[in-house]
Amino acid sequence: MRASVSPDTFPPRGHEAKRLSIIDAAAGVFCREGFAGANIDLIAAEAGVSRQTVYNHHGDKEKLFMAVVRDLTDRCNVGIFATIATFPDQPGDLEADLIGFAVRLNQNCICNRDGKFLRKLIQTEGERYPELFAEWREQGPGTTLPAIAARFARLAYGGYLTIDDPDVAARQFFGLVNAELQTTFMLGGTPREDEVVRSATNGVRTFLRAFGKRPSPGSVKKHTALANA
Amino acid sequence: MRASVSPDTFPPRGHEAKRLSIIDAAAGVFCREGFAGANIDLIAAEAGVSRQTVYNHHGDKEKLFMAVVRDLTDRCNVGIFATIATFPDQPGDLEADLIGFAVRLNQNCICNRDGKFLRKLIQTEGERYPELFAEWREQGPGTTLPAIAARFARLAYGGYLTIDDPDVAARQFFGLVNAELQTTFMLGGTPREDEVVRSATNGVRTFLRAFGKRPSPGSVKKHTALANA
DNA sequence: GACGATTTAGACAAGACTGTCTAAATTTGT
DNA sequence: ACAAATTTAGACAGTCTTGTCTAAATCGTC
């Protein structure tokens, strides 16, 4: 929007840097204290900036909050799609590959600073800003889950998995892979790497017990066996 | 608990009723507005009580908050253990019985008013009151998950399931059964009953594909089969 | 009906916070 | 080095909130 032939003459250099620094500090304070408890003086101090500069950049506590959520959503989406691009489409060792994918997803998008902050802000203030979080819902789960479901469908089509509904399978994949991190997430903590790996390993094993091809290679029998057990 | 013979003359009747009414109103306001944003005048108004009465009963905004969390934790635990008692130890139709159990657990303990409020308060303020929420962690997941794990171990011992680690299985059961409710939970919403039933149905089906005995009926073989698959 | 305890309404002081304003200091591009 | 833009520190009014206090009203029980 700030177009110019010569480089951005208006906000030369430190301008954008300060904007980012304010956003980052605000994210931390909003998460720790909640919207109502967040203190603009504190945000300014943590950003290493005067209070007036905060107002110059974002005008308003509410506008600042919106900017924080939008920034976090964008950053997380970038990370998630970059990670989805590493989904094992033609797996060598399916179990190991899916575990690696799950660990990457958790470490790069969910357990990192941005992911943790965005999750907390959504949980905390989601009901207060319906449109803002409807936007997140569309660009977040509404986009990433179908993308992952498509990858699972591809694995099923390639004969690696037996899946009825790829969308359900994608959601269950997340549920399984994060099953052992729920309590930590609830309390706002960050799981250690070995906890992430263990949860992912157990989750993927169970996932493959449910959806993996049975050892017998030729048998392509469908899942009608347990229908009315 | 409330003895009738020469009833407690101290708080005759309306006293305890007002205490509860305050706790309930405070729970709602704390959830909506967060601790910092919660307004004691508003709590008093929603409780149908004067502000001074709130202070008479609970003394302090922070003490009031603690009382709310403790009350919610107790109530939820009662509900959870009552529901765990309905776990299908000797199932007729294992799939249907587990689905029923999962739906009961969700509707009576997680999606109801108390469960929703407690979850939100833990997410929102958990980091600010470590001891309080350590207490919740012990009495909540720390107690209920082993209890459910024990039930799954019993089903495995009875030959209904093939489970390596009952604790992992219990956590994965939760993850699967709630897999399709995560987004709704994130935003503080309450899923409709049919959504709960669908998520539970899909979750239990996948759970049984992973842990259910293979169709062969008479086989009571122990769980050594898939040990190192 | 009377008595003791509880509740109520309202006033109140003390403190905190937001958002604005101003003038000085600093940075940035030329 | 100069000029324009940006940043800073501090003061400021206005509002809101908490927690206390007091005197009147209400409730429950005998």
Automatic annotation (TrEMBL), chains A, B:
<protein>
    <submittedName>
        <fullName>TetR/AcrR family transcriptional regulator</fullName>
    </submittedName>
</protein>
<dbReference type="InterPro" id="IPR001647">
    <property type="entry name" value="HTH_TetR"/>
</dbReference>
<dbReference type="GO" id="GO:0000976">
    <property type="term" value="F:transcription cis-regulatory region binding"/>
</dbReference>
<dbReference type="InterPro" id="IPR036271">
    <property type="entry name" value="Tet_transcr_reg_TetR-rel_C_sf"/>
</dbReference>
<dbReference type="Pfam" id="PF00440">
    <property type="entry name" value="TetR_N"/>
</dbReference>
<dbReference type="InterPro" id="IPR039536">
    <property type="entry name" value="TetR_C_Proteobacteria"/>
</dbReference>
<dbReference type="InterPro" id="IPR009057">
    <property type="entry name" value="Homeodomain-like_sf"/>
</dbReference>
<dbReference type="Pfam" id="PF14246">
    <property type="entry name" value="TetR_C_7"/>
</dbReference>
<keyword id="KW-0805">Transcription regulation</keyword>
<keyword id="KW-0804">Transcription</keyword>
<dbReference type="GO" id="GO:0003700">
    <property type="term" value="F:DNA-binding transcription factor activity"/>
</dbReference>
<keyword id="KW-0238">DNA-binding</keyword>
<dbReference type="InterPro" id="IPR050109">
    <property type="entry name" value="HTH-type_TetR-like_transc_reg"/>
</dbReference>
